[in-house]
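Quick one before lunch.
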Amino acid sequence: MSHIEDTISALATPLGFGAISIIRVSGEKSIAMVDAIFTGKVKLEKAKSHTVHYGNIFDSDEMIDDVLISVFKAPNSYTGEDSVEISTHGNPLIANKILELLTRKNVRLAEPGEFTKRAFLNNRMDLSQAEAVADVISSHTEASLRGARNQLNGLLSRKVDELRMLLLNISSFVELELDFAEEDVKFIEQGELIKRIDHVQSEIDSLLKTYSFGKIMRDGVNVALVGIPNVGKSSLLNYILKESRAIVSEIPGTTRDIIREEVSIDGILFKLYDTAGIRFSEDLIELEGIYRSRDAVKNADLVLYINDVEQEFDQTLYQEILILNDRKNILTVLNKIDKGYKGAVSYDISLSALTGEGIIELLNRMKDHALGNSSFSEKTAIVSNLRHYQCLSRAKENLITARDSAMNNMSGEFVSVDLRNTINCLGEIIGEVTSEDILNNIFTKFCIGK
Ligand SMILES: Nc1nc2c(ncn2[C@@H]2O[C@H](COP(=O)(O)OP(=O)(O)OP(=O)(O)O)[C@@H](O)[C@H]2O)c(=O)[nH]1
Ligand SMILES: [Mg+2]
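Model of the guanosine-5'-triphosphate complex:
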């Protein structure tokens, strides 16, 4: 366990008025320091771990609040250190006063994520789990929450650890051979070596493949509603949102700025972008809007290319959208079918933003798109974090080099170095290998008190 000297404190609940506020204190001297401002039936230093105590917080003779104090002793606390949680009446004046009293006793205010950073440094969780803590807090949909819980429970950590063990095992054979180079003994046959490397590589590939799904679970799907003016893009947005969010009118060119709204469909987050109808225009403001529409197409995970029953399908615009959206995820949508359709072009979805006919089919197609043909069970490790994805990609590159060296009968030293590099890349995911920069980058994104 690493040794951290100072004691830290922070408000762990949102700053504001409420039923209760909780102040967290952690560090070797946390219990003694809270004891110094607390009067209750028992001295907290004598209290057992995981017990709750009623009493008063005093500033000299002035009673600040009556509180409940929970005591957690190392190593069985969130941070792995002695920790205290003070539940006060939920008034920020009280919380601030108590934090000030603690500061006077040499308790330092915690930095963002510092409690979780300590939990990581004290081996209470690994790095990918620590990152999942932030995701659990910031999840806005059931799907993203489930993904974050999956990671916090250690599914990804266990998978990564399993692969590291397999690689350590392979590299130990290769390194043994190096130690006995003079005797020219074989500890692992080339065929067996390559078979084992291939196995790890296919496991890494499977993990990499979960990323597009993981990312959607975590960040949602960007959907751009585009088309020529007046086909009902804004009407469709309003219908999906069940509110009159965007202005709708029979005048072409109504929408100028992009309107972005979020909607959760069966627990999956969709970020909808209603855009300006694309056409030739000399109006500078409309042109800027159209420029932004094209930008939305570029950034979209899914484009709804909308037309209505009265207008010809604009092939030129469709081709342009195909070029702009390099993911080529485009659904063609025919709107206003309540007016009847006599055209020849067939669309992926036909609907009416006026009557609602066909909208369910559209939402189902959007959902199918989000889930892809992914059939992950609750027990599948899923990669949703870009940092993890990049570590895995680098691990894969190193492993390919190791395999090439083994195939070409290069000296074991080459194979061994690349196997080690692969192991290190995997180790970065769980924080087995890390740098202060990586840690700071991760924990400064947390809120204070977590
Ligand atoms: N009958 C019928 N009319 C519709 C339907 N959807 C939209 N409209 C009408 O079509 C006109 C244009 O609708 P909007 O939603 O403003 O179209 P838009 O594509 O956002 O237009 P711009 O913002 O100008 O590009 C309005 O008069 C709507 O009431 C539909 O499904 N059926
Ligand atoms: Mg519009």
